[in-house]
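Structure ticket #2291
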Amino acid sequence: MTGSASIDAIAKDQPSAAARELRAHGLVRTYPIGRGAFGRAHTAVRAVDGVDLEITAGVTVGVVGESGSGKSTLGRLVSLLERPDAGRIVLDGRDTGRLHRAELQELRRRLQVVFQDPFGSLDPTKSIGHAVAEPLLVHRRVRRSGMATAAEELLTTVGLDPGLARRYPEQLSGGQRQRVCIARALALEPWLLVADEPTSALDLSTRSEILNLLLSLQQDTGLSILLISHDFATVQHLAHRVAVMYLGRIVEEGPTHDVVTNPQHPYTSALLSAVPVADPPRQRARQRVVLRGEAPNPARLPSGCRFRGRCRFAVAECATTDPQLTDLGSGHRVACLLHGAVGPAA
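Resolution: structure written out below.
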């Protein structure tokens, strides 16, 4: 089977655009961090705590937040690399928690992952061609004799010279290695790509190239992307919708333009104020929102609102009431008492 034939065969297995949908409901993931004398966990961290997420065909959803907010854990849950402790993930209408191993393996082809460190994602003992075409071999979409042709086609798709298939990871630049990882992720023609900090290990000019590549691939193929990043500017460049995470929860979510131009949660306002503006006079005139204090210990979360210790708008009710996401209209949701019965809007 040739490389082109293998890709055509995969395309027949893909669901229609109308059926391409991922829905996550009430996801919870807990990690033990302390154990007693008999090995029993007595302290745990809820890295993801009751998160709902929806991704549809041709849409980029950005997840943004500080380090430790649970973004990468959410990405591993969505990509089925880890199982949630509670909640469920429905992919293309099928509950992934109820599938047998063979069914889950077949469904996993529809989503792929690009990790933060491209060099750590590649086997230094294998050629670039082998790394890119290996998914096709594992899923029996191509014979070993057709791997070279398939690899060259995939490298061309991401703007690389097909001749690089004979090189090894250490012979490539950081940007080239990340393009190789994207080519490998596209080998099985998934409809959803989970990109976990895909540009944070690259220099500024290379970041732009990778982001533009993802945008071009989406426009050409209708690819959906879950973009995980601590950089609001990166998310703003690509995402149609954005979810802001803080200590395992989504505190604001909505269309990117609405969230960026009219942030409703104080934490979102603080993140946006840290994004530099290219116009020096405007940058100097901006009022920076500086968060006070430190983030609380995730193993000993405060009562009520988790952000109240760093919030300049905190009121007494914030210590007793845990805010839930409330729809403000047009799909813009926020979890903050400022938009309920207590206090003014942020």
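Closing remark: The chain has two domains: 3-31+44-261, 262-346.
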